Amino acid sequence: MLADHFPLLGLRVRTPRLELRLPDDDQLAALAELAAGGIHEPDTMPFLHPFTDAPPDVVARSVVQHHYRARGELGPDKWTLPLTVLSGGTVVGTQGLNAAEFSVTLEVGSGSWLGRDHQGKGIGTEMRAAVLHLAFAGLGAEIARSESFDGNPASAGVSRRLGYADDGTARHAVGGRCRTGHRFVLTREAWERHRTVDVTIDGLEPCLPLLGADGPPT
After folding, report:
1. What percent of the chain has pLDDT above 70?
2. pTM
């Protein structure tokens, strides 16, 4: 099996209504089509890399390429794990986790999006809770960070509900415009105090060396 050679394909993170995993080909096609169908209002841009500012076929192709690129470049020193989110077997979005020199920093970042029909149902909070459990309980992280732009209260609301604290601002050039990003930071202690979602992880142990992780502290 391919997962014998790339064990991240066997990783599953589950909550009461969601499953997060690296997608198979059919699921990746569904994710690309979901992105092409729209993620946000046309006059907004919630992403640092404005991949949705393109025709639908280009958006779909960029989603596929991002997933292949992330798998090809993944290694212990730097990795991005773009997990596809399924609800009742239906692809609803993606929740990513990333790190650089994780074995040294014990720090992760995250990013996500949902198809528009699946927004406003609490899925965004649940899927972020899932990858935070993967980071803290599974990998042994000490810090998680997130950032959202002005005009994206949903993302900021998820961060605050899960216990992140404000961590300043940053200025970014996005599509030729200066955008203000609001930074958030979550410590292990704050994560433990705000945990409300039951999460289970399967298939993690063989993945740890690929992610530069030793697992949670004992």
Report:
1. 92
2. 0.91
